[in-house]
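Priority: medium. Attachment 1 of 2:
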């Protein structure tokens, strides 16, 4: 991604990203001064800076970590994080689960703020009418929403929500060569892809050390950060234009009008947008995913309809130690737009890592 070159044009400054996850620990070295907990509406502010397992903090650092104190430096270090907490299916404490707001309530609350991007690294096979209505509401407020497609391609490959809802950009995970991760779920609700292997992440809620994992969660965070970089450089663009520019410049070796079920429209390359000051972002009011949103989900078994109160979402992070790219699909000759031998740059204690590997709890 040549992050150092991108940061000369944009760091994401002025853009707020709502991270809907397990909470965000605002006290890690790389997130100090980056987390705007006081901007979370009171109706959904329960323990937003108490991360019950470290996942949400990792996502926040991937997006806007500064790298201070040997911490992880994200792709949009100038952006700010607005933390939201939802209860995943592994939150066992009954009191915590009762008091933590639903996904639908959180999305509606975030939609009423000035955060431009809503990043959701979780999912499940259940359709929730309230959640879907909240998504539509957020879209009407001009929000750009990203969600991980899931990590169970080798077993269930269920249709994942919120990724499969209309107006949510479903993000798959690839390795640094552009091949889709074997675990990354597939279907026509996959819209974009980003690195999802070989990433340093917080091991657990103790925040003592980073580990390594793999999953579509981190790919979602990287895509959200990519959008923040672009929106910061073009603050007058709409969500449609930011997304359209990501789709137009995505790395792929297949026709744009025939998106892949594995990598969607291709691998996000924000640098290709930032280096072209005269780029045409497309119409402000035209949804670049209007066809997919109109057709709906196909090529996968139908999911059930249920309440998220009885079926909480799963993290789509995935604790994986061997997730080499699948040969089923790759970006061909344009993996990450000539990365000079590395994927997106993330820094821990001065060491450069190839992005991205995230972990799962479900």
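Attachment 2 of 2:
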């Amino acid at each position: 991604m040549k992050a150092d070159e991108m940061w000369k044009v944009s760091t994401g400054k002025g853009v707020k990203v709502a991270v809907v996850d397990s909470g965000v620990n605002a006290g890690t070295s790389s997130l100090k001064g980056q987390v705007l907990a006081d901007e979370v509406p009171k109706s959904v502010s329960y323990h937003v800076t108490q991360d019950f397992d470290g996942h949400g903090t990792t996502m926040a650092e991937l997006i806007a970590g500064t790298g201070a104190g040997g911490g992880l430096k994200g792709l949009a270090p100038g952006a700010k994080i607005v933390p939201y907490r939802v209860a995943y299916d592994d939150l066992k404490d009954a009191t915590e689960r009762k008091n933590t707001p639903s996904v639908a309530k959180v999305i509606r609350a975030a939609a009423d703020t000035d955060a431009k991007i809503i990043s959701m690294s979780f999912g499940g096979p259940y359709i929730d009418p309230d959640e879907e209505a909240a998504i539509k509401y957020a879209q009407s407020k001009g929000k750009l929403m990203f969600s991980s497609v899931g990590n169970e391609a080798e077993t269930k490959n269920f249709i994942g929500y919120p990724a499969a809802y209309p107006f949510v950009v479903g993000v798959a995970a690839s390795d640094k060569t552009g091949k889709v991760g074997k675990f990354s779920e597939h279907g026509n609700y996959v819209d974009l892809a980003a690195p999802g292997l070989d990433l340093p992440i917080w091991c657990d809620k103790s925040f003592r050390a980073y580990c390594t994992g793999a999953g579509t969660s981190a790919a979602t965070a990287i895509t959200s950060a990519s959008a923040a970089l672009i929106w910061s450089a073009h603050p007058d663009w709409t969500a449609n234009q930011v997304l359209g520019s990501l789709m137009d410049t995505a790395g792929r070796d297949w026709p744009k009008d025939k998106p892949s079920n594995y990598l969607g429209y291709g691998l996000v390359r924000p640098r290709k947008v930032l280096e072209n000051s005269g780029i045409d972002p497309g119409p402000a009011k035209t949804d670049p995913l209007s066809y997919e949103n109109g057709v709906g989900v196909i090529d996968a078994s139908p999911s059930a309809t249920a309440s998220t109160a009885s079926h909480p979402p799963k993290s789509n992070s995935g604790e994986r130690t061997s997730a080499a790219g699948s040969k089923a699909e790759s970006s061909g000759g344009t993996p990450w737009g000539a990365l000079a031998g590395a994927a997106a740059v993330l820094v821990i204690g001065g060491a450069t890592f190839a992005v991205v590997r995230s972990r799962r709890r479900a």
